[in-house]
Amino acid sequence: MSDQYRAAPQDVQTVLVLGATGLVGRSLRAVWADQPPASIAPLWQGRGPAPEGVRNWLTWRILEQAPPVLAPLDAVVVLAGVTPGPGADYAANTALALAGMKAAAAAGARHVFLCSSQAVYAPSAAPLSEDSALGPTNPYGAAKAAMEAAAAQAEQAGTGVTCLRIGNIAGSDLLGKAAATGKPVVLDQFADGRGPERSYMGAGGFARVLATLLAHARAGTPLPFTLNVAGPRPVAMEQLLAAWGRDWRWSPAPPEARQSVTLDVTRLSRLHRFTEADSDPATMAAEWQRYGQG
């Protein structure tokens, strides 16, 4: 991995982060408050007033208001999005992404990072690379694929775009939400006696990856339009629950259940230096307990 890795330069940059009140946005704020990246001066956005103690805040109801007039920006990160849930308006993901791109272009930002998902891929037993076939199997994945397509058509000269196909951020995913209820979680058990394994990343790991990518954008490093984002090794869900100290019970996996859904992060590893802790369930659990509860 080291022969492919390019260290990102350090330089101060102004970054607008859209969606700073969601689960991932709150954890990112907490990580960067605890460990401020030397290269980043974030401007946080939410629909309402700034949370207590948060500085550099922009109140903007993105789907209801035109982009505000902003001072020059170096980059925009669009964490704002509609996640799976009853009555979710998944089409809003495209509108939010395009609004972020419009704001970036108006403020002279060099790059925009849009949060996509591994859900855009077609099912595969092999690790999924950015060149793997698309074929979302649920409305959320279809909406993220549509968002990527719209972003590709709307790319503007002078502003690069990267769609971050994120695996799972431990704690903010469906497993984490189930564990947060305090009730025992039900896991599919497969023929080998184990449960599902997925590509995960901790809240701190995601913040570090994002800081690396922002530094590369600032330096003018060519960045791909799509980029898988996850830890370098898959994580078994039962190991993550154990690290959280949560109970679970087994249920026989139905025939259609997929035991392994993993991402190939070779492309990301050429830009970001992973550590052993980036795939460690105990580290992920500790990061969510520290940064994901705000």
Automatic annotation (TrEMBL):
Q: Where is the NAD-dependent epimerase/dehydratase domain?
A: 15-194
Q: What domain of life is recorded for the organism?
A: Bacteria
Its protein name is: Nucleoside-diphosphate-sugar epimerase
